[in-house]
């Protein structure tokens, strides 16, 4: 199974590292201009200082406050975990996006991180019993 590394530009790397640590995530292999947030054994989010990110990008770096290029989704096991992680994000300075949604077999909440990147936290719900 291949691993997935999602690269995100951040304005203040230390602030971003503190934010994700406050959410309970661990890090792997940090450097002066980047840090790797371990999401799971096969998935990491690479936080790159904007100048470093720009060095890898073939086009201009998007401003997440003005446009959405990607929505990052974290899958949890149950609604309580969705609420817990979203609550931690908001307590750490994130902005909640929309209202909690329970529809189409899922429970979902969203937030924008400190740099404005959009995240969704969801879990799949068991089918309703008759």
TrEMBL record:
It comes from the Bacteria. Gene3D superfamilies: 2,3-Dihydroxybiphenyl 1,2-Dioxygenase, domain 1. Residues 2-124 form the VOC domain. InterPro entries: Glyas_Bleomycin-R_OHBP_Dase, Glyoxy/Ble-like_N, VOC_core. SUPFAM superfamilies: Glyoxalase/Bleomycin resistance protein/Dihydroxybiphenyl dioxygenase (SSF54593). Signal peptide: none annotated. This is VOC domain-containing protein. It comes from Prauserella shujinwangii.
């Amino acid at each position: 199974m291949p691993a997935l590394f999602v690269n995100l530009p951040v304005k203040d790397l230390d602030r971003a590292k503190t934010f994700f640590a406050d959410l309970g995530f661990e890090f792997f292999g940090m450097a002066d201009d980047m840090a790797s947030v371990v999401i799971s054994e096969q998935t990491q989010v690479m936080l790159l200082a904007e100048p470093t990110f720009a060095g890898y990008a073939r086009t201009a770096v998007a401003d997440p406050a003005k446009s959405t290029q990607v929505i990052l989704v974290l899958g949890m096991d149950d609604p309580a975990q969705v609420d817990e992680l979203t609550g931690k994000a908001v307590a750490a300075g994130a902005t909640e996006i929309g209202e909690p949604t329970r529809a189409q077999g899922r429970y979902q909440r969203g937030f924008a991180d400190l740099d404005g990147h959009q995240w969704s936290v969801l879990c799949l719900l068991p089918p309703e019993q008759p």
